[in-house]
Amino acid sequence: xxxxxxxxxxxxxxxxxxxxxxxxxxxxxxxxxxxxxxxxxxxxxxxxxxxxxxxxxxxxxxxxxxxxxxxxxxxxxxxxxxxxxxxxxxxxxxxxxxxxxxxxxxxxxxxxxxxxxxxxxxxxxxxxxxxxxxxxxxxxxxxxxxxxxxxxxxxxxxxxxxxxxxxxxxxxxxxxxxxxxxxxxxxxxxxxxxxxxxxxxxxxxxxxxxxxxxxxxxxxxxxxxxxxxxxxxxxxxxxxxxxxxxxxxxxxxxxxxxxxxxxxxxxxxxxxxxxxxxxxxxxxxxxxxxxxxxxxxxxxxxxxxxxxxxxxxxxxxxxxxxxxxxxxxxxxxxxxxxxxxxxxxxxxxxxxxxxxxxxxxxxxxxxxxxxxxxxxxxxxxxxxxxxxxxxxxxxxxxxxxxxxxxxxxxxxxxxxxxxxxxxxxxxxxxxxxxxxxxxxxxxxxxxxxxxxxxxxxxxxxxxxxxxxxxxxxxxxxxxxxxxxxxxxxxxxxxxxxxxxxxxxxxxxx
Length: 509
What we know:
With 509 residues, this protein is mostly helical. Helix content is 80%, strand content 0%.
């Protein structure tokens, strides 16, 4: 009898664990929905803001890009906050920041106030992009980490669709009211998100870093299938945190935590990294730079302008096409969500980038042809622009879009993970801000078609970098991935030295 009921019990526990981890991952990524909404809703709201406030193209570029330029502030703050107060409470704080931003933008009476609101939203975005992948990667099993961490990209794109729909729904309201509702309505989900996150457990890896082994074990028991798996994962995390294997108890001292830990982390990651650590940091920084430098934010934020340049001028059709871009982007990332742990990071990344290159060239050709024949509607060129735009966001969302977040969250060793993700996301958002704030000026300088040819060249460079430099991480535990970059283990030499000292001072009883 026992032999038949035991497998059923284990299987039931496994199903329960999967539901629990998925719920935690979804809750952690809910703030990213607000980020996606805030970025996308500006694509339509900016048309009405410019009309009411009578701002110039340069001022509009500043308004569109400030959210990305302020994001690095949030990323670096989140890197410190999530190590200080924990991953869970940092998600709560992120919701509060988005709430403040929504109120500022919704009640804006002038351009400076709107800029401040956008900046606060950018800080919230930096928090969301840093904490969501860190938390999700740390609580996910290796077999499903790609799937669960890609929820971040899924959330951003879902928020973007809501932003586009908001443009379409509220566009018919009076000029002074419509764009304010578009921007201010995100206050409601911000508060709801902050409240729901209180039901999440803390990251077991953060708990171990704080020496709270009993709490970490309790969380691992909820996300692991057997007691042996709990013991194995706890032992791996203890080793990564520099805690000797013989040191046990509910709460234990952690080597180095009270002696300038933050300076040690900066030194280990940035100022005096080992060759392996340097490669990890370079991989994450360049990946996130190329993620934005290939032009995705220009396409998302300036979709109405791109379609206007292609010859589509009716406002309803413009907003309808913008919604179509958002829906295609969302559906495409669903494909990535289910392929990341089956196909792997590298095949998706290379296929995605290759498709982006072709799409950007097509967009450049179509816009160049239309630009050389003003006043004449060239049907094939307009169709090429529309198809290429949709193909670009689709290819981006299938690979490069979600993989940048997944890969960044999983390659850094435990002690430097928060700071590493903060630096990477700061690079991502700063690059996005520069791209966004220069698109209109770049289009005037080299034409809008020329801008997309430039992005195609950058995407080609990205393909070469991904092919030659980034190893595959599918199916590896977080503690194993460091070996792919040449690390002997997840602990650095300083941590190993500290651990050795503790073992001498606290011998096995």
